[in-house]
Every structure is written in C-alpha cells, then in structure tokens.
Amino acid sequence: MSRLTRQETAWALTEAANEPYFNLVQRYVFAPYFAGTLAASAAVGASLWGYALGAAGLAIAILAPLLGSIADSGSRLKPWLAGAGAVAFVAAGSLWFAAPGVSLLPVALAIFVASVAMELMNQFTNAFLPVACRRERMGLLSGLSFGFSQLAGIAVLLLVLALSSSPPDFVAGAANGVDRLAGPIAAVAILIFLTPFLLVAKDRPATNGPSVRQGLKDLRDTLREAWADRNMRLFLIARMIAADGMAIVFGFGAVLAAAAFGWKADSLARFGLVITVFGVIGGFSGGFIDGRIGARRLALLGLALMTLGAASVILTDESRLLGFPTGVALGTPLSSPQEWGFMVSGAFIAAGAAFTIAGMRTMMAILAPPGKIAAYFGLYAFVGKATAFIGPTLVGGIASVTGSVRPGIAIAIVFLLLGGVALYLVRMPGRRMD
C-alpha cells in the first residue's frame, strides 16, 4: 500500500468530525440523559427522542437529494460542506443549555437541527471520495475513514470518563454537567476534523452558480436514471431497508441499556468505549477485507453480524443472558454476566456496522455515474433516511404504549434481514468488486 496523500489523509479524517456527535449525543451520553433525566419518565423521553430522530430523518430524506442535485448543477462542493458543518457546530454546542427542568421542545429542536446538519455534512464529504483518491483506493480509504472516526469516538468517550471522575469546576458546578457537555465536545470535534480537509482539498471547478431549477431537473433525471438501472435500484432498496434497522439499533441501544441496568454516564461511556473499539477494528480491517472479497460481500457480512447482535440484545436484560436466567442480581455496574453479554452483543453490532457502512459507501462510489457523484450520494442519503424515520417513530410509539423500547428494537432484525436479501441480488462491475 502506497502512502496516503495529504488530500487522502484529510478526507479520511472527515468522518471523525461526525462520530463524536453520534457517540456522545445520539447513543451513549445525551440520549439516555434526555430520556432518563430531562423527561418526566423513560417511556416519555424515549418516545419524544424517537419522534425527534424520525423528524430529522424525514427532513434529510427531502433535503439531501435536492441539495446534492443543486450542488451538482455547477457549484463547488466546499461551500456546501462548510455551511453544513457550521450549522452542526452551533446546534450541537447549544445542548449545553439543556439543564434539568428546561422545556423538552427546544432541546428536541436542537437535536433535530444538529442531526440534519450532520447528515448533510456527511453527504458532502462522501461526495468528495472520488475526487480525493483513485477508484482502486476507494475501498481502502473508506475503511480507514471509518476506523479513524471510531478512534475519535474512543477519544471523546475517554474524555467523558475523565470528566466524570474529576470534573473541572464549571462542570462540577452545573447540574448534570458531564451529560450536557456532550454537545459542545461534539461541536469542537467538527472544528478539529473538518477544517483540515476544507483547507487542503482540491474542489472541483465551478461552471455556474448553484441553480435550484437545474437542481430540481437533475434530481428528477437522477431518480429516473437510478431506478432504470437494475443494480442501482436493488442497491438503493437495500440501503433504504437496512438503514431503518441501523437507525433503531443505534438510536435506542444505550437507552435500553440505561433502562435495563441503570447505567449512568460513566458506565454508558465504558459501554461506548467497548463498542467503539470494535468499530475501529471493523473499520480498519474492513478496508483490507474489501480488497479481498469485494464491497458487496463486506456489506453483507456486516448486516449478518448486526442481525446476530440485535437478536442477542433483545434476549438479554437485567436478569437474563440470551434468554436464560443467570441467577445473578444487578449490583455494581458492569459486574453481572448479563451486562457483559449485552456488551458483547454491542461489539458484534459495532463491527457489523463498520463493514456495512464502509462496504455500501464504496459500492455507491463505484455504481454512481461520473460527474453526478454529489447527486447520487444525495440519493444515497435520501434512501438512507426516506424510511429511516419510520423505525425510530415506530419504536417511540411502541415505547409510549408498552413502557419499554425492547419490543420496538425487535423490528430492527426484520429490516436488517430484508436489506441483506436485496443487497445479495446486486451485481457489481469487475471481478474483484462483486
């Protein structure tokens, strides 16, 4: 493997701008705080959290392909990327003000805005992949990017553990200061990891200014063109269905752990560390496995691991491990076999997610027609969110009726399996790309 160029290295770091937000806010720290402390009850909090993520998914489904097509109508990509990053920075930083007793509505609104901006930021960095490297290095760079992002996720979780054990005065003096600091930490990560790429990357030349009219026309053409291509059609269907399952698992895994085992910020951070370490392993190894088995098979392997992990999570609770009573009562956090079984299940999910994300991103970069990369990655984001709001919304509704998120998470398995079937039917060009 030849050394990475400066532009390749900078691109590989861009996903690290996203992961701290997803790790700290949407998964392990702020989400359980929102559901368990800010809300009147865990069921009410989980329900509103699901609706906020669902609304964000719907907004992304509308905005991503439209903005991608407008960006492809003749403008440069960097301004779009910088704009999305700036909005995400402000919205994530504002979560510091989500103190106990505040109204849930503005907090949910901040989550909505930050989640939408983060996904758009990810869309435009993905669109730079064919610009950042040669085609034969896409799989490697995609896997490395995911691995670096997981390292950033580990770093911020270690920071949360350090702050929990020895908080500075301004954190110790604030109610739930560590939980609330999740947003500002995520905002700083955007600044650190996105700025190098904005400084060194070569943007494509601008032919015209962005055109809404041309963007809408290009969007219609892109949808028609993508649907007419059998492999692209099947790939987008697979992406759409699998994204529902992934949204449920990632959106509610830590909420379920907090409800079942009573984990607080420090235990949830340790849980997140274990999960993220396996994400790192999956990301770095996935880049090399891709070169041996191809992007499609890598994504299929990832979906299989996620399905296994999700089934294990559902069967493990405060008294059972994989459906069998352990006879061990909960005591000190992370001391029972059922808690460690939950950890192992999460590790399978994390490694599988790394394989799936890296594999699908490379598949899209290969399948998309040259010159329409941003539009197709907008379509990629669109199908990832077009129905992904359904999963969290369903879980939120089920939680409000049953008082538990566990039955809702079972829906994730159905989505992951159906997505795997559709992905299996895709045929990639080239002997090593299947």
Describe this structure in words.
The protein has helices at residues 6-12, 19-28, 30-38, 42-71, 78-93, 104-127, 129-132, 138-165, 169-172, 177-180, 182-200, 212-228, 230-261, 265-293, 295-314, 337-367, 373-386, 390-402, 406-424; strands at residues 320-321, 324-325. The protein has 434 residues and is mainly alpha-helical. The chain has a single domain, classed as MFS general substrate transporter like domains (Growth Hormone, Chain: A, Up-down Bundle). A two-stranded antiparallel ribbon has the order 1-2. Strand 1 (320-321) and strand 2 form a beta hairpin. Helix 2 runs antiparallel to helix 11, helix 4 runs parallel beside helix 6 and helix 4 (42-71) runs antiparallel to helix 18. The model has no long low-confidence stretch (mean pLDDT 81).
Strand and helix layout:
Blueprint: H1 6-12, H2 19-28, H3 30-38, H4 42-71, H5 78-93, H6 104-127, H7 129-132, H8 138-165, H9 169-172, H10 177-180, H11 182-200, H12 212-228, H13 230-261, H14 265-293, H15 295-314, E1 320-321, E2 324-325, H16 337-367, H17 373-386, H18 390-402, H19 406-424
Antiparallel strand pairs: 1-2
Which labels suit this protein?
434 residues; mainly alpha; Growth Hormone, Chain: A
Number of separate helices: 19
Helix content: over 70%
Distance between the first and last residues' Cα: 21 Å
Classified in CATH, the superfamily is MFS general substrate transporter like domains
Shape: globular
Q: Can you identify the CATH class?
A: Mainly Alpha
Give the spatial strand order of the biggest sheet. 1-2
Annotation, overall tally of beta strands: 2
- Uncertain runs are none
Alpha-carbon Rg, integer: 21 Å
Q: Based on helices, strands and strand pairing, what is the structural class?
A: mainly alpha
| Whole-number total of structural domains | 1
Note the quaternary state here: single chain
Order of helices and strands: HHHHHHHHHHHHHHHEEHHHH
Instruction: Summarize the biggest pleated sheet.
Output: 2 strands, antiparallel
β-sheet strand percentage? under 5%
Give the averaged pLDDT, no decimals.
Answer: 81
CATH architecture: Up-down Bundle
What is the CATH topology descriptor? Growth Hormone, Chain: A
